[in-house]
Amino acid sequence: MCEAMRHHWLLLGACGWVLLILMFVSKFISFRAVDDYGERVGGQSWTVPGAKVVKTIPVSSPEKPVPKPSDQVTRADQPSAVPTVADWQSVADKRIELLSTVCKNSSLRNLTHVSISKFVLDRIFVCDKHKILFCQTPKVGNTQWKKVLIVLNGAFSTVEEIPENLVHDHEKNGLPRLSSLTPQEITYRLSTYFKFFIVRDPFERLISAFKDKFVKNPRFEPWYKHDIAPAIIRKYRKSHRDSTLAASGLHFEDFVRYLGDVEGRRRMDRQFGEHIIHWVTYAELCAPCEIHYSVVGHHETLEQDAPHILKAAGIDQLVSYPSIPPGITRYNRTKVEHYFSGISKRDIRRLYARYQGDFHLFGYPSPDFLLN
């Protein structure tokens, strides 16, 4: 009997160790899953609207699983390959052609057409020396393009030499805005200069803006957390107490509800001023239906777009685009699903209604996996 009891206790002890190991593995997997929602993801591809890209798998995986339909994201119709000049020019032409077609769609006019106001002209940086105009669309790698223009203006010889704080100091970085010129000078440059801007999936851009301004805030811009976040919380959080505003911080759900409220946010946006550039639509930023841009680059294909844009602008022998960490530009559906997982379909549909013009103008598929 003693031997039987001894065997029983040994068996329980072994089970305990197994449970402990399983709990550890579960925690590790959970940590990795959260970590994978960050900006850096593996794998690269060069794409245009129509092809399929599967979710990234860990590099250490011994074999590639067959992708399930739910794992595929319709992003482009081009295989993963380094494009030739002719290939890239064909894609660039198709993007401009699509842009022109959508601009003519009267049903989307309210979402795609804006006047060329001072707000738009403030977004466009000028390089007179090489006849280039660049429209700033925050959260799509614009800091690096500003560095390119600063080098072209002659203040620095390479992009690596430029201090980060100088890039965003518009009083000292030597990049004039189009709004600083006379109407005649503006008209001349808009009609004759090489003009470009960069876009990315609209919802992924909003996630990036939320993380950068309300979670990380790496450049210490306190007004986002101390002024803008509390104002959004007071109006859009379903239940809150003033004493908990600062402690809880802005939730992505609050942010989405604010962005999707067409009428209610207008007074707030006037109060927030220029800070809204990080989440207003591409149409509001760059007026792509009123200004005839030469090229529209895509953040998801920036590794390939950047050198071709430099060549198309005639400056590829003068400056290089900074190196891009592998996979950082790739669309991450897992991250998008994670951020929108706790948000109601009603709020997601209202958000999509506001950014629908951007999805159509630049060939991004509607996020049906979130809407339906």
Name the descriptors.
372 residues; alpha/beta; 4-stranded mixed sheet; two-stranded antiparallel sheet; 17 helices; 6 strands; globular
List the helices and strands and how they pair.
Elements (H helix, E strand, L loop, with lengths): L1 H34 L16 E3 L17 E3 L10 H19 L5 H4 L5 H6 E4 L4 E4 L6 H11 L11 H4 L15 H10 L1 E6 L2 H15 L6 H14 L8 H4 L3 H9 L4 H8 L9 H5 L8 E4 L3 H11 L20 H8 L4 H17 L6 H4 L1
Parallel strand pairs: 4-5, 5-6
Antiparallel strand pairs: 1-2, 3-4
Describe the protein in words.
- The protein has helices at 2-35, 85-103, 109-112, 118-123, 142-152, 164-167, 183-192, 202-216, 223-236, 245-248, 252-260, 265-272, 282-286, 302-312, 333-340, 345-361, 368-371; strands at 52-54, 72-74, 124-127, 132-135, 194-199, 295-298.
- It has 372 residues and is of the alpha/beta class.
- A hairpin with a 4-residue loop joins β3 and β4 (132-135).
- The chain starts with a helix and ends with a helix.
What's this, in brief?
With 372 residues, the chain is α/β, with parallel strands linked by helices. It contains 17 helices and 6 strands.
* Main pleated sheet: 4 strands, mixed
| Major beta sheet, strand line-up | 3-4-5-6
N-to-C terminal Cα separation, in Å? 62 Å
Number of strands: 6
Helix content: 40-55%
Number of helices: 17
Give the topology string: H per helix, E per strand: HEEHHHEEHHHEHHHHHHEHHHH
Strand content: 5-15%
Integer-rounded radius of gyration: 24 Å
Shape: globular
Helices and strands: which structural class?
A: alpha/beta
Query: Segments where pLDDT lies below 50 for 5+ residues?
Result: 1-80
Average pLDDT confidence is: 80
